TrEMBL record:
<feature type="binding site">
    <location>
        <position position="487"/>
    </location>
    <ligand>
        <name>ATP</name>
    </ligand>
</feature>
<keyword id="KW-0460">Magnesium</keyword>
<feature type="domain" description="P-type ATPase N-terminal">
    <location>
        <begin position="103"/>
        <end position="169"/>
    </location>
</feature>
<feature type="active site" description="4-aspartylphosphate intermediate">
    <location>
        <position position="486"/>
    </location>
</feature>
<dbReference type="InterPro" id="IPR001757">
    <property type="entry name" value="P_typ_ATPase"/>
</dbReference>
<feature type="transmembrane region" description="Helical">
    <location>
        <begin position="1114"/>
        <end position="1136"/>
    </location>
</feature>
<feature type="transmembrane region" description="Helical">
    <location>
        <begin position="168"/>
        <end position="186"/>
    </location>
</feature>
<dbReference type="Pfam" id="PF16209">
    <property type="entry name" value="PhoLip_ATPase_N"/>
</dbReference>
<comment type="similarity">
    <text>Belongs to the cation transport ATPase (P-type) (TC 3.A.3) family. Type IV subfamily.</text>
</comment>
<feature type="binding site">
    <location>
        <position position="792"/>
    </location>
    <ligand>
        <name>ATP</name>
    </ligand>
</feature>
<dbReference type="Pfam" id="PF13246">
    <property type="entry name" value="Cation_ATPase"/>
</dbReference>
<dbReference type="InterPro" id="IPR006539">
    <property type="entry name" value="P-type_ATPase_IV"/>
</dbReference>
<dbReference type="InterPro" id="IPR032631">
    <property type="entry name" value="P-type_ATPase_N"/>
</dbReference>
<dbReference type="InterPro" id="IPR018303">
    <property type="entry name" value="ATPase_P-typ_P_site"/>
</dbReference>
<keyword id="KW-1278">Translocase</keyword>
<dbReference type="InterPro" id="IPR023299">
    <property type="entry name" value="ATPase_P-typ_cyto_dom_N"/>
</dbReference>
<feature type="binding site">
    <location>
        <position position="711"/>
    </location>
    <ligand>
        <name>ATP</name>
    </ligand>
</feature>
Length: 1218
């Protein structure tokens, strides 16, 4: 047998080498390939511990993955998981020319000769200099009222219709548009600034055989790029070579999937280490699937298969690798990161959207008033057409010039009617006040201030307060029906902690006697230098004592194998971290899976410390007892020994097998396979002769751990003889080099060794939830809010978190959909719908029969591959119908844009409000798609925060944000809108009634200055202050009874019924205000200005007392603005009437000197408000809602009410409106 050294170290296709010759280098006739393989070393692991160039300047992290100088290692076997098994199962089909692009390595001219590939410049801004004004105005004029005021301003420019000054009529609308445009321009300027910084970064690009610096925006597809440690990746590149001898590169993908753990990527051995680069890559066209990559590469006439482990995406950062070289395959807007960015949409408040419909109705009402006025004017003109020459206003002829008679201020009957209509529109325009929008903006600013200052939403760990980044949707927080949440970093801290273990049927859980476990850390003293794990782990004292006793008995041997499996069956890379003490080093275990990190730290705590990992071997320190005395990372001999295991193969975890395995060569030339995985997959591959009592005991422990919400894994092992190993080896080589169907072949190969296992035991890990997450989810559920979790994690992980967060319960019936094709998706959905209908109907029958059974809650669990076939197809409707019947929905392994698709699925089919919350760049599309986007300012970058409407430190803050502030904001804004409609309609109707008595000439009794000041001084401040400060209920009540949040979901504060009732009340009050003084002064000699002042005072006093009746919480500032507005009105009217140049000089002083004036004012207020007072009393006393009941409970005290059980909330419906 001849040796070969051309081996690939790939995540999906690592080729085991043919076995080398003996160490002497001479031919060995009695050559035992199996034995020599176990003693061989890798040529590619000949570096001692070092600091990368990037690490020296920026941090003190060292890589502990290197062996002694001159040693060799067998390359690791990575199989069963790769790009080909992800997403669309692309490994099952051939890459056709029409679906591919050709990238010529280091030849961008030829690459772009036929295809016009995108440049590397990116743009996330919404506007440009040319598009800002038209697009911004277009977005602003989505507000119907703005269109209305624009028309009014245009009409007022006509000389025949100029009721107010031309410039003055434009100023209010222009001011509002300008302020909003400045705000939008500033926000977009920040995006432009960020784009410039990003596009002007420098990258090292190969030009004529040398690397030269070039701006990111100038990078082209086909160019070879060199990235240094800690540098971000400028575009999507296929790795060609790295500083690691094995071709490994470690990258951090925080900006893509929200994970802070390091991921491993690999360069092909055919290109690794070469000085010149050439060849051609045939890859799929740009797509959004960040978990998959289908391509092949031709180098030196050899065709190689590429997968997701060979590509590094834009937005990642190179870590713990000195440098990496790759070729650009996707640039700019074609990169996967940019394709998953859906852009920043313009969000508008749902309440404001509904308000537009009421504004349209008010516009119709306004048109009706104007029509009545113009029709009546037409009739009056017909009846008095012969008298017009004698009337001052309607004088038909001008006799001022001798011999000439001209028409004067009269345009004929038809035009007079038309002008009367338009002038009516201008006079009655206050029916739809532009001040309402300004008031709403001011109220939102005030509400945002109190949200920011709320200590309930202050994160002590990060010292960060709540951020209100969008001021126009505060009230939407009170109407949320669906919450779409990311998992990693949002529900969890992404910090796993080993809790307990079951080994050979014995449960080593923590007991009360052991104080729920002691924190312990194992350390290794090496010539005065101490190595210890970075993280402490709680240990079971009994189990720790047994591990220290060694291999003295069978129990010790089994526990030894168990922890050896935890330490070796993973892809963890140990890194050294400096401490303030130069003699102490911390070992930081980095890897793709937090679970693996937790298990490795647990093994280290029990004395099985992973010291070093290379592509070919693993070094484990086992309580300091080993064989040769050398620690390569310290470059010096040691009095301690270590165990060195050759890694002969590794099959990584995949969602089909639900397990992973590592094949280890022992120092005594024996070979063992360690396997870990989900219980459902592991218990199916047990050796038939294995003791079933042990299996049943382990299963019982697993059930116990799972009921506590812990993440469980089963650990197994088996011995391999030489023939079994050779069978696996040859099959693995054939599968690894396959271009088509590689993932499926690797899964079949794994079954050769992953069978006939002996169960060593099971582990239990807790994924540390953020503080208060289970309680928060329970509160949201009681509030009638459905929580959906959308995560890129594996299904098992998501389900486990679902239990620990109380999102899933043991009472729920789980519907799991994992389908690979559209037809199987359709069949799964149909079956699930039938089952859900049966469960619902059976519970309904039981209820009808008088039984006490409740509807069985359903939980839908679906993966990203299934969603590929469902979203944007006819199956969407079926998925929505199914999801609507479920209490919980979990979406696993979903890409960023699929998250946005799920949100759109609900948003487009129901009027319910949606909220999305996440912490990483992979959540940006979801956050922007939802009605309300919330970013978690945690450890996963700030992309989610920058794209969000609100930002906070923890998921638990969602409860006070929604249940307290959301409720308050909605109640306040809903009342404020109705009150503003009422406030302005009262004045308009009084003006209209007066028009009926003035020959429809549109003259007014109310002074024009008072009309102008009405919305500025007389009645504006009270509604703003009440909108900011008023509270219908206290914080304690809102948190104690989450059901109260349902008032916003049912639109109790603002709906059509309330609008109609408000307008009817307005009509009554206007009649009282106008007709009472008119009848009282009918036969008197009082002038128009005097009765106009009475009408002014009547309106102002009435609307302010109307507001005072509805105020729940009084503050000193509330008293000041309400009573102060009434006082300010009297002062203003007296000043206006004291100016001789203005009409109505001294009118107030004449009228106010009589008792009738004040008696009428008092009578107006009583008569106008009495019906409202009576209806309010009857409604609240005989038909109270939840809020009114709890308000009374607050008055008489919580304890008495709670003890007597008097508070009973309305039931919450789970069926969303269609």
């Amino acid at each position: 047998m001849t040796p070969t050294t051309n081996n690939n170290y790939q995540q999906q296709q690592h080729q085991h080498p043919e076995l080398p010759k003996s160490k002497s280098g001479s031919s060995n006739v009695n050559f035992n390939p199996f034995e020599i393989t176990l003693n061989s070393s890798s040529r590619r692991s000949s570096m001692s511990i070092h600091e990368s160039s990037g690490s020296r300047s920026n941090n003190s992290v060292h890589e502990v993955s290197l062996s002694r100088s001159g040693s060799k290692a067998v390359p690791v076997r990575y199989g069963s998981k790769g790009a080909d098994s992800e997403g669309l199962s692309t490994s099952q089909r051939e890459l056709r020319d029409e679906d591919a692009r050709l990238v010529y390595i280091n030849d961008p001219e030829k690459t772009n000769e036929k295809f016009e590939f995108a440049g590397n410049s990116v743009r996330t801004s919404k506007y440009s200099l040319l598009t800002f004004i038209p697009r911004n105005l277009f977005e602003q004029f989505h507000r119907v009222a703005y269109v209305y005021f624009l028309i009014i301003a245009i009409l007022n420019q006509l000389p025949q219709l100029a009721v107010f000054g031309r410039g003055v009529s434009i100023l209010p609308l222009a001011f509002v548009l300008f302020v909003t445009a400045v705000k939008d321009a500033y926000e977009d300027w920040r995006r432009h600034k960020s784009d410039r910084v990003e596009n002007n970064r420098l990258a090292s690009v190969m030009v004529d055989g040398k690397f030269e610096e070039k701006k990111w925006r100038d990078v082209r597809v086909g160019e070879v790029i060199r990235i240094k440690a800690n540098e971000p990746i400028p575009c999507d590149i296929v790795l060609l070579s790295t500083s690691d001898p094995t071709g490994v590169a470690y990258v951090q993908t925080i900006n893509l999937d929200g994970e802070s753990n390091l991921k491993t990527r690999y360069a092909k051995q055919e290109t690794h280490g070469k000085e010149g680069f050439g060849g051609v890559i045939k890859c799929e066209k740009p797509n959004r699937n960040i978990y998959g990559f289908l391509a092949n590469m031709e180098v030196d006439g050899k065709k190689l298969s590429l997968g997701s482990s060979n590509i590094v995406l834009r937005g990642c950062e190179l870590k713990n690798t000195s440098w990496a070289i790759g070729v650009a395959v996707y640039c700019g807007r074609e990169t996967k990161a940019m394709l998953n960015s859906s852009g920043a949409p313009s969000k508008r408040s749902r309440l404001e959207t509904r308000m537009n419909f009421e504004i349209i109705w008010l516009s119709f009402f306004l048109v009706a008033l104007c029509t009545v006025t113009s029709v009546c004017a037409a009739v009056w003109l017909k009846r008095h057409k012969d008298e017009l020459n004698l009337l001052p206003y309607y004088r038909k002829l001008d006799f001022s010039e001798e011999g000439e008679v001209e028409n004067y201020e009269y345009y004929g009957w038809g035009l007079e009617i038309f002008f009367t209509f338009l002038m009516s529109v201008i006079v009655f325009q206050v029916m739809i006040p532009i001040s309402l929008y300004i008031s709403m903006e001011l109220v939102r600013v005030g509400q945002a201030y109190f949200m920011i200052r709320d200590n309930r939403m202050y994160d002590e760990e990060t010292k960060s307060r709540f951020q209100c980044r969008a001021l126009n949707i505060n009230e939407d927080l009170g109407q949320i029906k669906y919450v779409f949440s990311d998992k990693t970093g949002t529900l969890t801290q992404n910090k796993m902690e080993f809790q307990c273990a079951s080994i050979w049927g014995v449960d080593y859980s923590y007991t009360k006697d052991s104080m729920e476990g002691e924190q312990f850390e194992h350390s290794v003293a090496v010539d005065g230098k101490v190595l210890r794990p970075k993280m402490k782990v709680k240990v079971n004292p009994e189990l720790l004592q047994i591990t220290r006793s060694g291999l003295q008995n069978m129990e010790g041997k089994r526990i030894h194998d168990f922890f050896l499996a935890l330490a070796t069956c993973n892809t963890i890379v140990p890194l050294l971290v400096d401490t303030p003490d130069p003699n102490v080093k911390l070992i930081d275990y980095q890897g793709e899976s937090p679970d693996e990190q937790a298990l490795t730290y647990a093994a280290a705590a029990y004395g099985f410390m992973l010291i070093e990992r290379t592509s070919g071997h693993i070094i484990i320190d086992i309580h300091g007892e080993t064989q040769n005395g050398y620690y390569p990372f310290l470059n010096e001999p040691s009095r301690y020994d270590h165990y060195r295991f050759n890694v002969l193969g590794l099959h990584e975890f995949d969602s089909d097998r639900k397990r992973m395995s590592v094949i280890l060569g022992y120092p005594d030339n024996s070979v063992k396979v360690f396997v870990k995985g989900a219980d459902t997959s592991m218990l199916n591959v047990i050796d038939k002769s294995f003791n079933m009592d042990l299996v049943r005991a382990t299963e019982a422990h697993l059930h116990s751990y799972s009921s506590m919400g812990l993440r469980t894994l089963v650990i197994g092992m088996r011995d391999l003889n030489a023939s079994e190993f050779e069978k696996w080896h040859s099959a693995f080589e054939a599968a690894s080099t396959a271009v088509l169907g590689r993932a499926a072949m690797l899964r079949r190969v794994s079954s050769i060794v992953e069978n006939s296992l002996s169960i060593l035991g099971a582990s239990a890990i807790e994924d540390k939830l953020q503080q208060g997450v289970p309680e928060s989810i329970e509160s949201l559920r009681i509030a009638g809010i459905k929580v959906w979790v959308l995560t890129g994690d594996k299904q098992e992980t998501a389900i486990s978190i679902g239990y620990s967060s109380k999102l899933l319960t043991s009472k729920m019936t789980q519907i799991i959909i994992n389908s690979k094709t559209r037809e199987s998706c359709r069949k799964s959905l149909e079956d699930a719908l039938i089952m859900s209908k049966k469960l619902l109907s059976s519970s309904g029958v039981a209820n009808d029969a008088g039984g006490s059974s409740e509807a069985t809650p359903l939980a839908l669990i679906i993966d990203g591959t299934s969603l590929v076939h469902i979203l944007d197809s006819e199956l969407e409707e079926q998925l929505f119908q199914l999801a609507s019947t479920c209490s919980v929905v979990l979406c696993c392994r979903v890409a960023p844009l699929q998250k946005a698709g799920i949100v759109a699925l609900v948003k487009n089919r129901t009027s319910d409000m949606t909220l999305a919350i996440g912490d990483g760049a992979n959540d940006v599309s979801m956050i922007q798609m939802a009605d309300v986007g919330v970013g978690i300012s945690g450890q996963e970058g700030r992309q989610a925060v920058m794209a969000s409407d609100f930002a906070m430190g923890q998921f638990g803050f969602l409860v006070p944000l929604l249940l307290i502030h959301g409720h308050w904001n909605y109640q306040r804004l809903g009342y404020m809108i109705l009150y503003n409609f009422y406030r302005n309609a009262v004045l308009v109707l009084v003006l209209f009634w007066y028009v009926l008595f003035t020959a429809f000439t549109l003259t007014t009794a109310i002074n024009e200055w008072s009309t102008t000041l009405y919305s500025i001084i007389y009645s504006s401040l009270p509604t703003i202050i009440v909108g900011i400060l008023d509270k219908d209920l206290g914080k304690r009540t809102l948190l104690k009874y989450p059901q109260l949040y349902g008032a916003g979901q049912r639109h109790e504060a603002y709906n059509k019924k309330l609008f109609v009732l408000t307008m009817l009340d307005t009509l009554w009050q206007s009649l009282v205000i106008f007709w009472a003084p008119l009848f009282a002064y009918w036969s008197s000699t009082v002038d128009v200005a005097s009765i106009g002042d009475l009408w002014t005072f009547g309106v102002v006093v009435l609307v302010n007392l109307h507001l005072a009746m509805d105020v729940i919480r009084w503050y000193w500032v509330t008293h000041v603005v309400i009573w102060g507005s009434i006082v300010a009105t009297f002062i203003s009217v007296m000043i206006i009437d004291a100016i001789p140049n203005l009409p109505g000089y001294w009118a107030f002083f004449h009228a106010a000197g009589t008792g009738l004036f004040w008696l009428l004012l008092l009578g107006i207020v009583i008569a106008a408000l009495l019906p409202r007072l009576v209806v309010k009393f009857v409604y609240q006393y005989y038909f109270p809602n939840d809020i009114q009941i709890c308000r009374e409970a607050e008055k008489i005290g919580y304890e008495r009410v709670v003890e007597s059980g008097q508070i009973e909330m309305l039931p919450i419906s789970d069926n969303p409106p269609r």
